[in-house]
Amino acid sequence: MYPKYDRIAHEIHVRICNLPLVEEIRSLRQLHLNQLIRTSGVVSSCTGVLPQLGMVKYNCNKCNFVLGPFFQSQNQEVKPGSCPECQSQGPFEINMEQTRERLLKTSVQISANHVSMSFTSSPICSPPADCVPKLPEDHHPGEPGKVAAGRLPRSKDAILLADLVDSCKPGDEIELTGIYHNNYDGSLNMANGFPVFATVILANHITRRDEGVAVAELTDEDVKAIVALSKDERIGERIFASMGPSIYGHEDIKRALALSLFGGEPKNPGGKHKVRGDINVLLCGDPGTAKSQFLKYVEKIASRAVFTTGQGASAVGLTAYVQRHPVSREWTLEAGALVLADRGVCLIDEFDKMNDADRTSIHEAMEQQSISISKAGIVTSLQARCTVIAASNPIGGRYDPSLTFAENVDLTEPIVSRFDVLCVDEMLARFVVGSHIKHHPGNKETGAALEEVVLPNFPTCPPSRKSCSASTSSTPKRGSILN
């Protein structure tokens, strides 16, 4: 009568999504406790999957009477007080044969400030994350690049149960709907000297944000503006002129950065060899040639960008690392800059200041666009499908045109070969005061710059409609550009 009886679910979970209000992690207060909230961020870490007790039965060690069942709550463990058969106060032990594990429990970390989010799975709570737009406050980092200047990112822990377990991994940009809940933690009270509650988010629904979701969030005004721009015959020149309009010259570099933001289409001919579609760019030139300004401008307009420096980044900080979870004491995987920039842009300034050992760690991420981890019993591979834009200074601080590019930079051939566009700045900045003037001399020859409100949304155009942008340009997307 029921041919698929084994597929009948024993428990049905109601999921709620698309709440009208989105809360930031740093804005969560007492009024949000025990309330259903919606936030977004980037998963920074995940713990292992652990079983959670649902219905428990106990055996009395004196009379062997079976007590229960006791249904465990989310906040505390329920134990019998006395045996109804022999009236003793115990001891009691769990009846493993009749005890049922109700759900699998996973804890994740999310962060707010639109920079990155982190999820972790653990028995009590998830790794820290800062929900909503970007970085971490509790233990869930938010989306990359959305933290206000001068403010630290926030993160918040989130707990995933039942079918939500393993629904996301480090580096995923997600929207989270759940109940903001507080748990009593005695260790926090001893450390702070006064009663403190640890807050977590009990996840109810998770949506992974991809290109389709980003396009769906465009307003009608954005769509009309993009369609109108696509009909402009000089749209390619206008986009190139919009890349750092306050920076004089460097037209080829602006062209390369614009093409890297749009990227290409990944190819997998015959399913045998995968060719990435992201364009990696290396800027090399004398000090004062606006290399860092280009990186900062890309960070400002890119929909998802992570900025770091060579001296402040290490191999594990760029890829991924493992650390012990503060509650479960098990090893958890933490995502680095390249993983958090998945399907976005990773900007590395002072690339030549990095150690050779640290630079070799990103070889796999730049070509295969994945990061393999085999540490502390964790063997996995994380996605790092991002564009890498790096800035480097030549050897001695000055670029020698009589030497080759490899002889001017302190970089090995394997790392240089992974960059598709090499931009060399031979012209020092000679235009400082004019950068504050609205009309540059070169703007009369090229198209008018686009507004910064429209430009960030333009690269989110679906791949099928990307042909409307820069279609008039005959410059190849991959190659070596020399000024």
TrEMBL record:
<keyword id="KW-0378">Hydrolase</keyword>
<feature type="compositionally biased region" description="Low complexity">
    <location>
        <begin position="463"/>
        <end position="483"/>
    </location>
</feature>
<dbReference type="GO" id="GO:0043138">
    <property type="term" value="F:3'-5' DNA helicase activity"/>
</dbReference>
<keyword id="KW-0863">Zinc-finger</keyword>
<dbReference type="GO" id="GO:0003697">
    <property type="term" value="F:single-stranded DNA binding"/>
</dbReference>
<dbReference type="InterPro" id="IPR001208">
    <property type="entry name" value="MCM_dom"/>
</dbReference>
<protein>
    <recommendedName>
        <fullName>DNA replication licensing factor MCM2</fullName>
        <ecNumber>3.6.4.12</ecNumber>
    </recommendedName>
</protein>
<keyword id="KW-0539">Nucleus</keyword>
<keyword id="KW-0547">Nucleotide-binding</keyword>
<keyword id="KW-0131">Cell cycle</keyword>
<keyword id="KW-0235">DNA replication</keyword>
<dbReference type="GO" id="GO:0008270">
    <property type="term" value="F:zinc ion binding"/>
</dbReference>
<feature type="region of interest" description="Disordered">
    <location>
        <begin position="462"/>
        <end position="483"/>
    </location>
</feature>
<dbReference type="InterPro" id="IPR027417">
    <property type="entry name" value="P-loop_NTPase"/>
</dbReference>
<dbReference type="GO" id="GO:1902975">
    <property type="term" value="P:mitotic DNA replication initiation"/>
</dbReference>
<dbReference type="GO" id="GO:0005524">
    <property type="term" value="F:ATP binding"/>
</dbReference>
<dbReference type="InterPro" id="IPR033762">
    <property type="entry name" value="MCM_OB"/>
</dbReference>
<dbReference type="GO" id="GO:0000727">
    <property type="term" value="P:double-strand break repair via break-induced replication"/>
</dbReference>
<dbReference type="InterPro" id="IPR018525">
    <property type="entry name" value="MCM_CS"/>
</dbReference>
<dbReference type="GO" id="GO:0042555">
    <property type="term" value="C:MCM complex"/>
</dbReference>
<dbReference type="Pfam" id="PF00493">
    <property type="entry name" value="MCM"/>
</dbReference>
<keyword id="KW-0479">Metal-binding</keyword>
<keyword id="KW-0862">Zinc</keyword>
<comment type="similarity">
    <text>Belongs to the MCM family.</text>
</comment>
<dbReference type="Pfam" id="PF17207">
    <property type="entry name" value="MCM_OB"/>
</dbReference>
<keyword id="KW-0347">Helicase</keyword>
<dbReference type="InterPro" id="IPR012340">
    <property type="entry name" value="NA-bd_OB-fold"/>
</dbReference>
<feature type="domain" description="MCM C-terminal AAA(+) ATPase">
    <location>
        <begin position="235"/>
        <end position="424"/>
    </location>
</feature>
<keyword id="KW-0067">ATP-binding</keyword>
<dbReference type="InterPro" id="IPR031327">
    <property type="entry name" value="MCM"/>
</dbReference>
<dbReference type="InterPro" id="IPR008045">
    <property type="entry name" value="MCM2"/>
</dbReference>
<keyword id="KW-0238">DNA-binding</keyword>
<dbReference type="GO" id="GO:0005634">
    <property type="term" value="C:nucleus"/>
</dbReference>
<dbReference type="GO" id="GO:0017116">
    <property type="term" value="F:single-stranded DNA helicase activity"/>
</dbReference>
<dbReference type="GO" id="GO:0016787">
    <property type="term" value="F:hydrolase activity"/>
</dbReference>
